[in-house]
Amino acid sequence: MSQLITVTILNVNIHAVTNEQTAQLIEQFIATGEPHQIVTVNPEFVVEAQSDEAFRQIINQADLALPDGIGILKAAQFLGQPPVSERVAGSDLVVRLAELSHQHGYRIYFLGAWEGVAEQSIAVLKQRYPKLRVAGCYAGSPRLEDNEAIVERILPTQPDILLVAYGAPKQDKWIARNRARLQIPVSIGVGGSFDFIAGTVQRAPVWVQRLNLEWLHRLIKQPWRWRRIWNAVPRFSWLILRSKFGND
Ligand code: UDP
Q1: What is the pLDDT of residues 201-218, one digit of tens each?
Q2: How far does residue 111's CA lie from ligand 1's centre (Å)?
Q3: Is 113 in the pocket of ligand 1 (CB under 6 A)?
Q4: 175-201: per-residue pLDDT in tens?
Q5: Which of 195, 226, 229 is the best mutation target for the ligand 1 pocket, counting ligand atoms within 8 Å of the beta carbon and taking the most?
Q6: Each residue of 116-132: b (16+ CB within 10 Å) or e?
Q7: What is the number of the ligand 1 atom nearest to the C-alpha of 228?
Q8: Where do the domains of the chain lie?
Q9: What is the DSSP annotation of 112-155?
Q10: In terms of pTM, does the model score above 0.85?
Q11: What is the CATH number of domain 19-41+59-64+91-198?
């Protein structure tokens, strides 16, 4: 997809696409039948990629690296990169894919999240998109010793889209490790999306999202994530400032 506009933030490449373009690209990827990997890059990913070279390479080699976070849009602007017009959030994308499945019959496999959460998110999605086609659903785990059994389980189901909810970077490494064998047209690391859709974790109200304060809402609701939020907000901002004004 060489025509995509790329912004580079701290040596991490992200595509300046909209939600609508993302849906169109996914349809194109499915039409080719070749395996494609999609990553949803938020500021935490960028911070993590500074010390995890394998993760940075996975992001930079992804067929599509989505701008999943207001921090990405702001940082691109601040660093004088091409404009990124909107946020493409993983959980919104999962809902959109359910709609595409309902319309076009794409088969989706739901991998990850704790027991029962993917099933619950499928039930919620089916209320809205009754013709959603589910290729399979399994919690499994991102541990290496479970890898083979999970691949064997997914292979015969031949999905068009594989959603992997193990959190970053585990989910993205899981996909990178298995994509050649699985030959699934579209694989996406979707983080906590199943939890949001199932309702086990509440997303911030829309007005909070509009104020760009979804991170603060997460900190209040899930205070044990403070370390990740620290990476996503102050640490990320500091690294961006340093890359603009620093001399390293
Ligand atoms: N998760 C899992 N197995 C693990 C670790 C995480 O299934 O060993 C799931 C967890 O249940 C959650 C998802 O990974 O549904 C993503 O978690 P998190 O909220 O940390 O991800 P983020 O959205 O911040 O990337």
Answers
A1: 888 999 998 888 888 888
A2: 11
A3: yes
A4: 999 999 999 999 999 999 999 999 988
A5: 195
A6: ebbbbbbebbeeebeeb
A7: 24
A8: 19-41+59-64+91-198
A9: ESSTTHHHHHHHHHHHH-TT-EEEEEE---S-HHHHHHHHHHHG
A10: yes
A11: 3.40.50
